[in-house]
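User: Design a sequence. Structure:
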């Protein structure tokens, strides 16, 4: 290890948090709120597919592709914005992703047909995927290593709160404000992004790591050696299986129950 590398490693170790402070708590709240907004948006889309398809005269395949486009956008956004946050900072890029997600979710309320709605959902998915990864990274870097697992679990709970809110709010609001009104609610996260941007700070460990160390490819770091490659591949497989089961059931289940068995909201 060179003197410069040793100095950088020492700086990172020194800057790593040892206790939960106000910055760490704000990072947790900001990320959990972002996760809740993501969960809310995806599940209301599942609830509204039948109403959207009927209003815009969409086929079953077209309706399903709206969800698919959102998830495809999330994959691209997760990779792209994740790499961007390594270079430009967690908080800054996190704010961009929330605004992108919120604005294009709101624009779905103005859709006049299949193609423009498909484009809006894809772009909203870019922001959703970016926020998903960056929010977790922000909390992991802001919290002490000894409490990192529980902090990550708390962020994940934000998603479930959003899903629960969607399950409660959609039957109450959809008959009154319609699917366009439900999408219009999606603009609200843009307001939250303003407060998140001005209340959060870059984790000290991130600042220390990027201050003196040359920029390197995040994707290359995942395969820098055989042990790291095996770990990365294992996590990809685990997350893929989990997400396949989760989204395969949760997102399409409301529409399936409504069309197959005639269930009301």
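Assistant: Done.
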């Amino acid at each position: 290890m060179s003197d410069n590398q040793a100095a950088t490693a020492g700086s990172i170790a020194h800057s790593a948090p040892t206790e939960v402070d106000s910055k760490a708590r704000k990072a947790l709240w900001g990320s959990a709120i972002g996760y809740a907004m993501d969960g809310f948006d995806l599940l209301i889309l599942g609830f509204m597919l039948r109403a959207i398809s009927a209003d815009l005269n969409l086929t079953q395949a077209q309706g399903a592709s709206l969800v698919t486009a959102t998830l495809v956008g999330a994959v691209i956004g997760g990779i792209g914005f994740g790499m961007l946050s390594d270079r430009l900072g967690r908080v800054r890029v996190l704010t961009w992703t929330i605004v992108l997600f919120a604005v294009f979710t709101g624009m779905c309320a103005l859709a006049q047909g299949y193609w423009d709605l498909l484009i809006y959902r894809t772009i909203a998915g870019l922001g959703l995927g970016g926020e998903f990864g960056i929010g977790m990274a922000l909390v992991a870097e802001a919290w002490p290593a000894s409490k990192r697992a529980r902090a990550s679990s708390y962020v994940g709970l934000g998603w479930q709160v959003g899903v629960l809110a969607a399950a409660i709010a959609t039957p109450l609001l959809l008959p009154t404000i319609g699917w366009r009104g439900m999408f219009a609610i999606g603009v609200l996260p843009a307001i939250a992004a303003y407060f998140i941007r001005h209340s959060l700070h870059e984790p000290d460990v991130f600042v220390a790591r990027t201050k003196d160390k040359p920029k390197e490819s995040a994707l290359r770091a995942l395969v820098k050696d055989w042990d790291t490659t095996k770990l990365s591949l294992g996590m990809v497989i685990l997350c893929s299986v989990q997400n396949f089961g989760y989204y395969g059931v949760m997102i399409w289940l409301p529409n399936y129950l409504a069309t197959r068995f005639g269930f009301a909201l």
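Residues 94 and 221 are 21 Å apart (CA to CA). Residues 1-13 have pLDDT under 50 and may be disordered.
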